[in-house]
Design a protein that fits this description.
about 160 residues; alpha+beta; 7-stranded mixed β-sheet; 7 strands; about 35% helix; about 30% strand; GNAT family N-acetyltransferase
Length: about 160
Amino acid sequence: MRIPDLPPDLKFQPLAQTDEELEFSFRAKEQALGPHIRQRWGWDEQFQREVHCQRLREKPFFRVELDGRPMGTLSFQEQPGHLRFGEFYLMNSFRGLGIGSRILAHCLQLPDDVSFPVRLEYLLWNPVGSLYRRHGFVEIGRTPTHFLMERPKPPASR
């Protein structure tokens, strides 16, 4: 799946399988998700790296750039009957500026164009849920650690 750029300033590039890209994507995860992981379990660097490398093997990651500067990552992939959005991590200096909302709205236009629902999950104690609810996601389930959310496919247009 390809994510088109969002003019004038946002680009979405497939994450290359290089040491530099791996390190960037891991640091983005650590900055965005680390505080929520530390709060519950502490941060085990080696374990987190192993999990991150596994996720990189399992799904396509994109590097998000703002005016040519790498600012975060996301994963977006087609699954049977829905699209899966995840691994959405912005570096600290880019959070709280409305950029995440712009990125999410842009990415959600893709499944809307083909009338697909979108699913994601996030940690129960991560405040990012308010962002997802503002963009139409509703809870469809829960695990001991995660909310399971879906943004239903849009109604058919006439």
